[in-house]
């Protein structure tokens, strides 16, 4: 290695402890500038990620940039209803058709009263019992299990003078073809005939 003669720069005072490159003191507020850039980058990444997710999943996260295309809800088409079968003798006796009457009210024995009136009118009444609902049922509903029985269910609503009909899966009321759940609206006597 080459050796140079000593000069004035080789004489470093003993109280000077710095070694190496000498830098000027850092400017004030320089740490805040770095923090601001980091916060801006974080915000851009988070916002961009949310925007990308909302586009990918086709959901609206309320970012307000580009509205998600709304899927039009189809207008339900009214289903045709069957005419009410008001004559119980029109029911094929070989079918073994049965009707269950359940009392969904606080009136004791209403299932027997209504069941007796319907049986007297010729309807094939089977089981009569209290409904298992803990609360009082507000509306009388005639449940039927197969679509072909809708006319009979409508005939029973006409005979009761109150209620509505609903198609239910066969396992909902397995004991009968039609189940009448009497509600608090059943205050009218059953129509004869």
UniProtKB/TrEMBL annotation:
The chain crosses the membrane at residues 32-53. Residues 98-185 form the LytR/CpsA/Psr regulator C-terminal domain. It comes from the Bacteria. Pfam families: LytR_C (PF13399). InterPro entries: LytR/CpsA/Psr_C. Keywords: Membrane, Transmembrane, Transmembrane helix. This is LytR/CpsA/Psr regulator C-terminal domain-containing protein. It comes from Antiquaquibacter oligotrophicus.
């Amino acid at each position: 290695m080459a050796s140079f003669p000593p000069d004035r720069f080789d004489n470093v005072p003993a109280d000077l402890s710095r070694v190496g490159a000498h830098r000027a003191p850092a400017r004030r507020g320089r740490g805040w500038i770095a923090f601001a850039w980091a916060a801006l980058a974080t915000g851009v990444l988070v916002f961009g990620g949310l925007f990308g997710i909302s586009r990918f999943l086709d959901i609206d996260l309320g970012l307000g940039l580009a509205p998600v295309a709304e899927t039009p809800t189809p207008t339900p088409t009214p289903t045709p209803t069957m005419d009410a079968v008001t004559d119980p003798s029109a029911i094929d006796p070989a079918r073994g058709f049965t009707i269950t009457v359940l009392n969904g009210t606080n009136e004791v024995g209403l299932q027997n009263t209504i069941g007796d009136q319907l049986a007297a009118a010729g309807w094939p009444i089977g089981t009569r019992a209290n409904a298992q609902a803990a609360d009082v049922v507000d509306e009388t509903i005639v449940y039927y299990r197969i679509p072909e029985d809708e006319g009979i269910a409508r005939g029973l609503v006409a005979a009761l003078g109150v209620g509505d009909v609903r198609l239910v899966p066969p396992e909902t009321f397995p004991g009968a073809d039609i189940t009448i759940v009497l509600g608090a609206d059943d205050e009218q006597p059953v129509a004869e005939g």
